[in-house]
Amino acid sequence: MTNSIRAEVVTIGDEILFGQITDTNTQWISTELTNIGIRTVRKSSVGDQTEAILQILHEAHQRADVIIITGGLGPTKDDITKKTLCTYFSVELVRNQTALALVTQFFEKRGREMTDLNRGQADLPANAVYMQNDWGTAPGMWFDYEGRVYVSLPGVPFEMKHLMANRILPKLRASFETPVIKHKMILTAGIGESFLAERIETWEDALPPHIRLAYLPSFGGVRLRLTATGQDEAVLDRELAEQVENVLPLIEKNVYGYDDDTLESVIGYLLLRQNLTLATAESCTGGFVASRITSVPGSSAYFWGSIIAYSNDVKVNQLGVKPETLEQFGAVSEETIRQMAEGVRKTLGTDVGIATSGIAGPDGGTPDKPVGTIWIACAIPDRTVTRLLKLGQYRDQNIQLTTTYLLNLLRETISENVNG
């Protein structure tokens, strides 16, 4: 019987706490650990202070079997990780000749001068197992200490990832007998988290103990993550597939994909499958919809272009919106959004046209049409579907939500075209 192996990831550096850089290391490391059956139970960030780092390491020792540390391994005085590890393990720094030879070679190949600070990169805590960094001078280090494994890695993401993938993960696999952890992601749009939970409550309550469900909400959608733990990967894959099959009838209309799918990539597949072309007319989203669509490689096969119709003159002259429509109903109205979607489809000669028009904020609202009032539309040859969104006060959030809701409306409309 294999045991559950727990990990904690510790990032070191004032720049992380000050918000000057985004910590992407912990997410990547946790994903890779999960893939080999090691569960991350805590993530911590700490500044460049010796006592703070020591405290975090003492705490992690109580919680985890594997402690992964990134950062603080550079040659300058503010990089204190190695010295702090010496204090923690009660050892001295010792020059590692293998590390020194590789650091020397690193600088010679680049025609750069080797300084004493650079040579110091080869000084490691005496109990460290040196893990060669092929892409930099900061060393990787492995420690076995009081029944725990400590790993210290550079904070530079591409160096850290190469070390983890090529040296640390294989050694962890060889050091621990771990369970299999498998994830299955069900991707939904157009339904809120609480409504989704109510709809699938009976199914969720019937899940076996070794399969857990998590709700991961995002702009305009919710990801359902099923996590199964066991000993046989094939069995877990089959059980997860069965659970997806069981829940799908309850939420099928809102499911747009699985795992690494994106809403825009699924739309691209549907358009290609039906040999349809697409154009966008955007007002309040200012091109964000087109940006999402063209983020998919190969989107030029179905996406023909976009008209950013921020002014009413563009709506009239480029999209064919009638002046009397704008005068009577305004730019933010069902009548206008319908003509925008139909107009861009006609102007650019596509099968499908989608459009946005609204008040993203923070200004521009009225008592009748407050900030967050947004219309979206999808026009296909035989009909035009419109929808009113009533969102919040925050501009960026409104733009992102509108984009997701419009893409989902497009998906629903062309899916009905396929299924109907």
TrEMBL record:
It holds the Pfam family CinA_KH. Residues 8-175 form the MoaB/Mog domain. SMART domains: MoCF_biosynth. CDD domains: cinA (cd00885). InterPro entries: CinA, CinA-like_C, CinA_C, CinA_KH, Competence-induced_CinA, MoaB/Mog-like_dom_sf, MoaB/Mog_dom. NCBIfam families: cinA_nterm (TIGR00200), molyb_syn (TIGR00177), PncC_domain (TIGR00199), PRK00549.1 (NF001813). PANTHER family: NICOTINAMIDE-NUCLEOTIDE AMIDOHYDROLASE PNCC (PTHR13939), NMN AMIDOHYDROLASE-LIKE PROTEIN YFAY (PTHR13939:SF0). Belongs to the CinA family. This is CinA-like protein. It comes from Spirosoma taeanense.
